[in-house]
Amino acid sequence: MTGDNAKVALISGATRGIGLGIAEMLARQGYALTITARDAARLDTVAADLRAAGAADIVSVAADMADTEDVERVLAQHADRFGAMSALILNAGVGTAGALAESSTRRFDKTLAVNLRAPLQLIQGALPMLRAGAAAAPARGAKVIALSSITGVYAEAGLSVYGAAKAALISLIATLNAEESANGVTATTIAPGYVDTEMSAWIHDRIPPERMLAVDDVVGMVDALLRLSSRAVVPNIVMSRAGTDGYRA
Collapsing DSSP states into helix, strand and coil, what is residue 155? Predict the structure, then answer.
């Protein structure tokens, strides 16, 4: 993709929930997309749907974000096809609930690998392409948008490891702004309460889907952030659920 108007994004966790909603929104806007998730068959189906929705081009890469070699492969395939990047959407995540006293190191390692190490690796690998994207469209710049969680801002019982990983992600993105916003690469974490996705199904007995944030609420926020000029930096956005005190998921 070349030219000032070319828009290209990489989206992790792109086949379900928020990631799929973002991919569909960007496809309708004519973005070229690299999409990645673990399920190769579902990726193929989603890729076909995104082409039909208007995506300029699609690269789909089946990958596990807990595997550093898989992450490198995603970056390499994006670079081979596009060479630059307008937006990096860090959506893939994993989390389990449980008391801090009972949390296992295995759970900790997997949660940190997917929610923090993979975003760091993707950012590091994508930075040259993001800088190139920003240079090609200096008024718009290039964006990094990472899905964090309200539990990364306000601690919640039962979500210690997940919250710690998401808090670290917020810090990582803040540092990225400090280092790269002058180069036209700006970044935002979105920290929502429970969103009505498959990942939140485990708590439906206490919080029904109709009381959760809608996927489209988060997608709309991503859309707004991508439309900001390169002069605007929005480090973190907390999205709480109606009917709560705003400090819990």
Answer: coil
Secondary structure of residue 89 in the 3-state scheme: strand
Q: What is the mean pLDDT of residues 3-7?
A: 65
Q: For residues 21-28, give the mean pLDDT.
A: 98
Q: How far apart are CA 7 and CA 33, in angstroms?
A: 9
Q: How far apart are CA 141 and CA 155, in angstroms?
A: 33
Q: Report pLDDT for 233.
A: 98
Residue 5, pLDDT > 70, answer no
Q: Measure the N-to-C terminal CA separation of the chain; round to a whole number of Å.
A: 40
Q: To the nearest whole percent, how much of the chain has pLDDT over 90?
A: 92
Closest CA to 233 of 190, 188, 176: 188
pLDDT, mean over the chain: 95
Q: How many CB atoms lie within 10 A of CB 192?
A: 22
Q: In this prediction, what percent of the chain has a pLDDT beyond 70?
A: 98
Residue 91 has pLDDT above 80, yes or no: yes
- What residues form DSSP beta bridges with 31? none
H/E segment holding residue 36: strand 32-37
Query: Hey, how many other C-beta atoms are within 10 angstroms of the C-beta on 135?
Result: 13
110-128 core/surface letters (b: 16 or more CB in 10 A; e: else)? bbbbbbbbbbebbbebbbe
Q: Can you tell me the distance from the alpha carbon of 238 to that of 88, in angstroms, rounded to the nearest whole number? A: 20
Contacts for 102 with CB less than 8 Å, ≥ 6 apart: none
- DSSP letter for 74, please: H
